[in-house]
Amino acid sequence: MKPSRPLYEREPELAAAAKALDALCGGQAVGGLLVFSGEAGIGKTALLGEIQAMAADRCTIWSARGGETVTSVPFHVVRQLLQPALDRFPADETRALFGDWFEIAAPALGLADPSGPQPDPQGVRDGLDFVVSRLASRLSHRPLLLIVDDAHWADGESLAWLSGFTARLSELPVLVLQAHRPQEFADRDADWAIARTPRSGGTEGHPALTRVALRALTPDATADLVRAGLGDHADDPFCREVWAVTGGNPYEAVELVAKAQDRELAPVEESAGLLRELGASARGSGLVARLERLGTNANRFAWAAAVLGTEISQELAATLAGMSSAEAADCTARLRDARIVSGFDPLEFVHPLIASAVYRSIPPATRTAMHGRAAWAITQAGLGAAAASRHLLEVHPDDDQELVAQLREAARQHLAVGAPEAARRCLERAMDEPPRPGDRAALLYELGCATLLSSPATTVQHLRAALDTPGLDGALRIDATFRLASALSHNNQLKDAALSLAAEAARTAPGPGLMRLQAAHFLWEGMQAAEDDGPGRSARLARNADHLRGRDNAERALLTLRAFDAMLRGENAQLVVDFCERALVDGRPARGLGWTDSEWGFELPAMVGITYAFTDQLDRAEALFGEAVRAFEISGWSGAHLAFAHTLLGLVHRRRGRLAEAEGFLREGLRLADRAGSGLPVHWDATCLLVDTLLARGRTAEARLVADRYDFGPPYPSAMVLPDAPCVRGRLLLAEGRTEEAVAELESAGAALEPRGRFNGVWAPWAGDLARALADTDPVRSAQLATRARVHAERFGTDTAIGEALRCLALFVPAEEATLLLAESVRHLETSSSAYEHALARFEYGIAIRSEREVARAEKLATACGAEGLATRAQQVRASIRSSE
């Protein structure tokens, strides 16, 4: 295809683009990612423009461009991409396009005011994915081309969205073209997968990526460019000097040719000596000198435009420059004639190199003052504190309390649209102002809250500073302590979390605040994988909670913790369920204790549901966890929170024996967790449950792959894992035939759990598995372990616990007694809804009585559960029974 305007030595780049466009616009509508990189002025923008012209009749095209002075403006690039497309729809149709994501993602695009709880940034990104996917599907007759120029200056929020979105391009008829300067991208250390994705072929989940590095023009191509501008009579020495002066940089070569035309310079060897002086005027100090020659007004107006950055409002630039609309129009005309700006309203600089040179030419004191005036003008125009904040960030600290208030308000607005990093920058700048001594502690608290989702370690630092600073009193101090403990727990510092709560509780007067601190203290003490006095803590918790009726949320929180602790200890299950009932209101979490309520956190409703899951109340557990998924999705909490909700649903299905469904939920939980980070608490829970589920399905090799991928093994985290991690790892080692290692792991699990009084054999099945592992080598000890496990199971009293204990004990008694125990085990497990354990018990019972009918029933149950390994074993046993009859 012939270029619409001269592009020199860009045939490989255009061929790559043509190939990508053909794949996009062909019958399969294959999306992709095409990345161009190169130094400033190398021709990236011109190349993208040419590709856009190539695609104009075949695609719907959205484009955006980063800007050096607007990298701190959240969602700036995303808004450029999407707003023009969405502006075509009436308000009601726009809302319909977003569906349930409207309240979450529309505020980030400036289409709605924020409402509801603070959104998770991942939720906002998912909402943007949904909207773009919906728009792409509505444009099915014309595939979508997204163009992002100067990506090295894109804001962090847009980069984060593009990182996730580009991984989905193979699913959508969307091609993304991106151009950046590699060194400046690397200097920003932007967390964007496009910059780091492997070369063509990609990795699982990523589309094939094509990278093209643009190179400088050769002397021959530079000569063609010169003759295209100055005429064929331009001689070789003159053209060679243009190449030497510009280094083959296309932008500089074009500008130099334009300057030669302006000076009416003859393109011959005798004029070549003047080219270096002309080249200097096209960049840096030479450009500044050329700008100054246009006059004071034009120079001041250009400064104002450079401070404003991109999509420059002529009226706002006039206000900032202190001139009338007529003067601004005149300055615009002169700057356009000088090829410094383009457009009228809004204006843009002709090239980023020009914008950078003009901005850096402003004397520092003047530039700072202009940013302050720009913030004032934006506020006066009613655009809000968030819009003004990028300018406020550039103002020097000057003990200005109004500026502190503006930055705090801007931070609140950034948080409300899912931009915590932008909020953090505002609050850190407010700290530098500095705030009044009486406001400092509250500002540190706000700063800690802003970083809670993105950096638990930073949150810990700020909240500790807030608590150590005078002025943080009452409910705010209690909330800061509660959030500090939560951040410490997420940073794998559960002991520190408990200690910080205990210290604050000691100085807090009786009342709801103290009860909140005490509940949180019990929570993080109990969630530790190891503690000094587990029984003592359990006794204190019982004294504090057993008499409570659940009259307020503090009482309900303590009852929740009591129920969870009693479940782990294997206390009477009916008593445990009664605690859960008192902790709820009409069977649901009370207002203020819900999944997205920030005062208490999601851990409490999760603990109620987990307790139900391990007391055979699976319908109640499933209802609670289904509500969690809905609550997190509605609120846009689609990072670690949603990953945990899917993991909890996986737990319910595992307990029911719906192994295939459990595996699906757990793999989705891991996928969501992987997007949120690595080594998170939810990774441990989901991995542990998935390994256990795969073992139940008879897929030991897959379980090992999952365990290795997520480093499932010692050292274990400081928080307990759902279910007990060493027990599940011991079960994996047994399945692999690594009996000695399994025995050591299971003995270690028992040694950690028994001193804490945790005897729930469904949560932590170490005793039964250890008994089976030692059956041949130490049958006496095995029988003792199985007998004690039965005692604990009967104390707990659930059908699953009793049925499993009886099934294990049957291994160590005479055959006639074993048959009776297995029959009783079947009866219990048939009632329990634990279909997989029921299948195991019926299988072993069928073997004991040599009944093909019973084994066939076990096979049918195993097949329904998705336990392929057990079903295969049942088939083999049936065949053996038939052949022996």
UniProtKB/TrEMBL annotation:
Keywords: ATP-binding, Nucleotide-binding. Residues 6-176 form the Orc1-like AAA ATPase domain. InterPro entries: AAA_16 (IPR041664), P-loop_NTPase (IPR027417), TPR-like_helical_dom_sf (IPR011990). Signal peptide: none annotated. The keyword ATP-binding applies. One of its GO terms (molecular function) is ATP binding. It comes from the Bacteria. It holds the Pfam family AAA_16. This is ATP-binding protein. It comes from Streptomyces mutomycini.
